[in-house]
Structures are given as C-alpha cells and as structure tokens.
Specification:
- By secondary structure, this protein is mainly alpha-helical.
- It has a domain at about 30-135: Recoverin, domain 1 (Orthogonal Bundle).
- It contains 7 helices and 6 strands.
- A two-stranded antiparallel ribbon has the order 1-6. It has a two-stranded antiparallel sheet with strand order 2-5. Strands 3-4 form a two-stranded antiparallel ribbon.
- The structure holds calcium ion (2 copies).
C-alpha cells in the first residue's frame, strides 16, 4: 500500500498544471456543414458546388436504391440522416427537404435543400466553402446564451 501512495503523491507532484484552462466549446459545426465538408472530394479543404452535388447524389443513391423507387419515405430519410448527418433528427429534416409535401424525399429535393444551405454558408459568395465558412463561432457555449452572443452572421 505504501509504495502505491508514494507513487500517487509523486504523480500528483509531477503533473504540471495546464497553463491555460480548457476553453469552452464555442466553435461548432452543424450536421449539414459537416456533411458539406465531407463532400470535398479532391481534399483541397474547399467544397465546390460540383462537389456538393456529387456528394449529395453519392450519399443518397444507396437509400433510393434500397427504397426501390424514386425518393424515400420519412422513416428511410431518418435512417439516411442518422448515417450521413449523425442523428435521425439532424437538420435538414424531412419537412424542410420535402418541398412538394408528398411525404417522399427525392434526390432533387435533397440537392435543392443542400444548395440553399450551401449558399447560406458561402458568406463571400465565391461558390466554394472554406472550413471557416462551415464552422459557427459562438461567444459562449450552447446553453449559456445571454442574448449578447457573438454568433456569426446568417443562420436561419
Ligand atoms: Ca474540394
Ligand atoms: Ca417530395
């Protein structure tokens, strides 16, 4: 027992305290932004419109193939979202994607929604998304909003 205590005391003494405290998580990535970053097929850290369209088509094709017809229902869309956006309830959700309200999500509807999201993220409107455009910087972590947050521009 004694050697263990001695070791622990030594370990505590040698553990240097971090010079700066862990900063709160103020840089966030929305699920749609993470998806668009993953569309960067040529790995130049920029997502172009062409990469976006190819990425959406590539990600959605298996879901549509599994459905065996054009478009997928909301339940299949939730499965798609769980896989590609990280959560079944992540945005964009089925109601906002299903533009014609026929309870099916088509590839064209998904591409249109991601086109709108792309344009929202593309702050300088140059047709390519940088990683800086895809993160959301907050003055405070979520849940600590005080109404004076510096959340950067745009968003919904
Ligand atoms: Ca790229
Ligand atoms: Ca539809």
């Amino acid at each position: 027992m004694l050697p263990l205590i001695a070791f622990l005391v030594q370990a505590a003494a040698s553990a240097s305290p971090s010079p700066v405290p862990q900063p709160p998580a103020t840089i966030l990535v929305e699920p749609a932004a993470a998806f668009l970053a993953a569309c960067d097929a040529d790995a130049d850290a920029l997502t172009t419109r062409a990469e976006r369209d190819a990425g959406v088509a590539r990600a959605f094709a298996p879901a549509e193939a599994a459905a065996g017809e054009r478009g997928v229902g909301y339940i299949a869309y939730a499965e798609w979202a769980r896989r590609w956006l990280g959560d079944a309830n992540a945005l964009p959700g089925p109601y906002e994607v299903d533009a014609d309200g026929d309870n099916r999500i088509t590839a064209a509807e998904l591409e249109r929604r991601f086109t709108a999201l792309f344009d929202r993220y593309d702050m300088n409107k140059d047709g390519a998304l940088t990683r800086a455009e895809l993160v959301t910087v907050r003055a405070r972590p979520p849940g600590e909003e005080d109404g004076r947050g510096r959340e950067r521009g745009r968003r919904r």
